[in-house]
Hints:
By secondary structure, the protein is mainly alpha-helical.
Amino acid sequence: MRAKRKLLVGIIVLVIAGLAYSYWQIGQFASQKLTVEKETIFTLPAGSGRVVLEAELNQQKIVPDSIWFGWLLKLEPELAKFKAGTYRFNPGMTVRQMLALLASGKEAQFPVRFVEGTKMQEWLAQLRAAPYIKHTLPDDKLTTVADTLKIAPQDVEGWFYPDTYSYTANTTDVAILKRAHEQMEKTVDRLWQSKKDGLPYRDKNDLLTMASIVEKETALSEERSKVASVFINRLRLGMRLQTDPTVIYGIGDSYKGTLTRKDLETPTAYNTYVIAGMPPGPIAMPGKASLEAAANPLKTDFLYFVADGKGGHTFTTNLASHNRAVQAWRLAVKEKNER
């Protein structure tokens, strides 16, 4: 009997020791760092179980092959509730942290940055090049964007808010554009309600169009409301806006980098040297500062402005002063080129 008891006790001790060893090994494996030396994007396909997950992690050399992987999921079942998606793994992350991330469903976020002053064609090219976006637009025609988003064709340019938009893998190009469009609509609605009284705008589209012109005319935040005041003053006096960016927009792909006298004299819907009043719509996507400048321009008597050769502009109230400013700018450019 004693021998049997000793044998039983021995077996129990061995089992306990084995369990303790296994528990320790599982803990060691869970605390082991991933074998990645840089940020790694990992995609777990829909419907994947433990076997597929482990195989993918081994194949991509993220986690070394180990008998303890399955045991960890049994010991900590909350880690086994992993969700399909695309995730970001960082150096220093442990196996347990990695599994907890997969179980959380917090997929990797990717940014796409739309810059102020750019056009829809540029946005569409960015979306084509951005990683992990699901492309559903069949082409990059503005009419296709208008039809897909169910907006008026003339509202494609300008009516999208420039910003950085974060998205998860397989987000569609259309979904991102919808977010940008809704944000611009909300912003313009707010500014329309708070704009200065008496501005010569017929509707919200005029405000947005003015903001786009201001955006293209200056990169200096402190100048934007002053630039807007020039165009507001011109509209009130019945003067033509005579702004080069609208001419360039009207020329389209034919523009080669330099405006000629012929360009300024050739009629287009956007040539403000030829047409009176505002062009039919925005010429770019204006940012927050330009939108606010268009809604709340400074009160000035300025009717002209020209580059000062130092990154800003010289503003004047009459043609004679403007001509002198133009001569000063030409001289500054000449001196710069001769250096």
